[in-house]
Every structure is written in C-alpha cells, then in structure tokens.
Amino acid sequence: MTPREIELVQTSFARILPQREEAGVRFYEILFARDPSLQSMFRGDMVSQADKLIGTLAPVVDGLHDLRGILPVAERLAVQHVAYGVKAEHYDLVGEALLDMFEGQLGPAFCVTTRASWRRAYTVIAGAMVRAAYPR
Asked: Distance between CA atoms of 34 and 31, rounded to whole angstroms?
C-alpha cells in the first residue's frame, strides 16, 4: 500500500471511532441483510460484538505501515474463526459490508479514493487470512 492509501484508511477510521458502536452495529445489519445465515454465528449482545469488531480493526488499521507485523496476528485470528463456522467466501461479504458501512457512516467523506484504499487494505489482509485459515 502507498503512504497515501494508508493515510486515507487511517483518517477515515479515526472518523468512525467516535461513532464506533453505531458503526459496528450498522456493519452487522448490512452483513446480515446480505446473508441472514451468518447471524447464527453470533450469540449474545450485538453491541458488544460491534465494539469488538471496531476494537479488532483498530490495531490492524494502525499497523498498516508494517504489514509484516500485523499479518501474523490477522492470520491467527482467521484460523480461530474457522471454529465459529467462518468460510473463505464470507470474507468477500464482510469486506463489502465494511465498505458500505463506512460509506453510510461517513457520507461524502468516504470518497471513491478512500473506498479504493480500504478495498486494497482489506484485500491484502483478508487474502492473508484466507490463505492461513484454508491452506490448499
């Protein structure tokens, strides 16, 4: 990723933090609307789950300048999520829901360039996660 792409991702994420609960809940609403079967993977309070999501994204977004440092953590997380029923194809759904959540929460501040930067970051990280969790 270029320094500018990283800056766009980090800046947009910083704008989400003050609304982290609402943004996280909105993410899951979008995700479950796209694939209602995914809702069965989540038990308990979705507000807490939403907070966990944003809390998990924070160090990843913060560490984009050092992908070699954050990818092993993301890979371990992916392997753990296999036990919850996460499949490789879910990563695309999650990525699109994440992008749509950002667009909905940030409006015009989530411009085409910022969306492309997020897509690139997500593709790199999710790709590593899928390869770790589902080796061929």
From this structure: 5
